[in-house]
Amino acid sequence: MSSSITKLSTVSGCLVLVIFLTPGLVPAQKSAGKSQQRPEQKKERVKSPPKAVTELAKLREEFINATKEYKINLEKLLARYERNVKSAEDKLEVSKNLYSEGLIAKGQIDEYERALANDRDKVIETRRQLANADAQIADTLVEANADDQMARAPRMPKGSFVRTASLIRYNGAASWVLSDAWRVQRFFSDTFKKPLPVGVFGQGAIHDRWHLDHRNAMDISLHPDSVEGQALMNFLRNNGIPFSAFREAIPGTATGPHIHIGRPSHRY
After folding, report:
1. Cα separation, 174 vs 180, whole angstroms
2. What's the pLDDT tens digit per position in 46-56?
């Protein structure tokens, strides 16, 4: 190894000497005068730096890749377990024939049946783990898409209203602070004769865990499609109060259906 390195070093040194000593290979010395500079040499094209990738995006990509690798191993296991099931079924069939001829005891049949049931359970469990892996990948992609929507939220014009299959967002023009929550609470109690079901008021533990700034917002435990949810959203829109309503859980963004009152909670 050291001999190879020495040879490479020697060859490299020789190449350098050849370049500097061979006529025509040494660049001509340029005049210091500005008049001799070529126009294309005055401006050098500067390449823009590659788009930065956030740490969260990197973590998601690593998680998805690891989950896909996990799925490959599960699929190999599943194929083996399915072969075991076929083999156990064949053994059980043979043992039943032998038992009918009085050649083996009933206990051996019971043993083969237990072995077959165990192999079938392994197949069922492995398929369940595969389904969970697919769901985790899908949830991670949904979370990334939800974060992208959150990132675009500040560019929404004041008073704009957006409705998708899983998300409703109203960018109310009115100024909102958490101390104004009493207005919403009074409307709800006057209308439905019961307290407003506040799930989280201000920053909660779940928002700390997900790195969401929720200090000036509150979450209401109402499905946006319910009668109470519809009434609450109408009140918020009529008063210009911004809100986001979730019809389902979005990993990293929403634990389930609820109405978020206030500006969108961005990640920090």
Report:
1. 11
2. 444 444 346 66
